[in-house]
Design brief:
With about 350 residues, this protein is an alpha+beta fold. Helix content is about 45%, strand content about 25%.
């Protein structure tokens, strides 16, 4: 069976330390070191995670998270997206060469920080739901609903459900605003995660300095007293930066890059000045303002901008090779960063 290396994350350590823990399939996790950065990895069989049964997939996901969180007990780690693998040791060198400075700068911002997630729920959701049903506008609408099994009754029930959900969302939003107002000054960033149950009010991820952890916990205690125990606050963490920074391995895609090259009429090797010159020339030719009724022109302009953006990602030392053998050897680490999604 073909072997690969499975990547868990980049680790920052000022001095090298021996470390190991269990990873996927109980394989030993080890560090590949370059300067103050290390790649946490383990040997792993070639696996198509998308084809796995859900039970097996969830087992691997738990092993992935457990390894990262075990590493975090001793080091600062920026995690890779679940399922990230490399095919050969040569790619390790390419990852360090292309990404070292980028990741090093990210650690300068994150090394003293952690993520804490706070899940906020109604303690007695049935009671909250019943209170909403007793609101005059809801009671009046129910009294005016048509009787009998008709389409009008069905439509009225749908509308009633939307009215109740709207009022419930208003209540959630009011509570979220109070939480955010009292927590924002202790957090460098706050993101919302998905609500998975009706009883949930919000799920928030806080990016905080490690020394602010006790402060955040005291704020949560204060909020619990403020809501007189009607709201449940569950703190999860400290965690790696799952919600804020996840590393993605971006490998060369010859078909994609060759399409971009042809769109910009470029040779198989081009420097930055040639690429920019071709882009500007073609932009003037196929700009939609030249003929606002020409849909093909708009499509060509969209393809041009997309292609230029793709090529800029492949640029190295102000040059880009479009040769298939070079593209297939290309590899970069990209940090996926969610935009602030706090909804008030």
């Amino acid at each position: 069976m073909n072997k690969r290396q499975y990547l868990y994350g980049f680790v920052f350590q000022e001095s090298w330390q021996n470390f190991t823990c269990k990873g996927l399939d109980d394989q030993e996790v080890y560090f590949n070191n370059r300067g103050s950065l290390s790649l946490a990895m383990s040997d792993f069989k070639m696996t198509d995670f998308s084809a796995l049964p859900q039970k097996e997939l969830l087992l691997y996901l738990r092993q992935h998270h457990l390894a990262i969180e075990t590493i975090m007990e001793n080091f600062c780690i920026i995690p890779f997206k679940f399922g990230t693998m490399i095919e050969s040791p040569d790619q390790i060198i390419k990852i360090f060469t292309s990404s070292y400075n980028q990741i090093r700068k990210k650690f300068a911002l994150l090394r003293d920080m952690v993520e804490l997630d706070v899940i906020v729920s109604f303690n007695h959701f049935d009671q909250v739901f019943n209170e909403i049903r007793e609101i005059p506008s809801i009671k009046h609408f129910k009294q005016e609903m048509p009787s009998g099994s008709t389409q009008d009754l069905y439509n009225a029930q749908i509308k009633l459900g939307k009215m109740v959900n709207s009022l419930l969302d208003e209540k959630r939003n009011g509570i979220r605003k109070i939480i955010f107002d009292r927590m924002s000054d202790v957090s460098a960033d706050i993101l919302t995660n998905d609500i998975t149950q009706d009883s949930m009010i919000t799920s928030l991820a806080f990016l905080i300095k490690k020394k602010e952890h006790p402060v955040l916990e005291r704020r949560i205690e204060d909020l619990d007293h403020y809501f007189n125990g009607t709201i449940d606050f569950k703190i999860v963490g400290p965690l790696p930066f799952y919600s804020f920074y996840t590393l993605i391995l971006h490998k060369g895609n010859f078909k994609e890059l060759d399409f971009a090259r042809q769109t910009l009429n470029l040779p198989e090797k081009a420097d930055l000045s040639e690429i920019n010159e071709s882009y500007k020339k073609l932009s003037k030719i196929c700009h939609p303002d030249n003929d606002s009724h020409n849909k093909d022109l708009a499509r060509r302009f969209e393809d041009l901008n997309k292609s230029y953006k793709i090529i800029m990602e492949y640029i190295s030392d102000n040059r880009c090779s479009f040769l298939k053998e070079d593209v297939e050897q290309w590899i970069r680490v990209k940090a996926f960063e969610r935009e602030n999604a706090v909804m008030l």
